[in-house]
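for the writeup, i need someone to sanity check this before i put it in the appendix. the sequnce is what the collaborator sent (i think, or maybe the updated version? ugh). structure was predicted straight from it, no edits. if anything looks off just tell me and ill rerun, i have time this weekend
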Amino acid sequence: MTRRVTRTATVPLEGNNYGVDPALVGRRVELRYDPEDLTRIDVYLDGTAAGVARPFLLGRHTHRQVPQAARPTPEPTGVDYLGLVAAAHEHAAGTGTPIDYAQLAIFNDTQTP
């Protein structure tokens, strides 16, 4: 796969950026890599080895077309977390009457200075 080296001496590949030798800035290089391991990229210029591209900004560790293992289905714990949060909220709010904003002093005309 060929890429042009940016002026910051990086090459983009599969959403990641890799740092290369600054002498390659502006040149078109060939990148050779194992699709299952995007942490090591070999750089070639005109068919000759030109070093290794080091991960500069790595978001993906494998090529997007490499099949991924299925995630295991989590076993239910039997704990109702939402119910626990709701109960804690109700307990913290108390069981008293709700606030009657009309009864507050700032809304009462008799308390005017």
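The CA atoms of residues 7 and 99 lie 63 Å apart. Strands lie at 2-4, 10-13, 16-19, 28-34, 37-45, 48-57.
thx in advance!!
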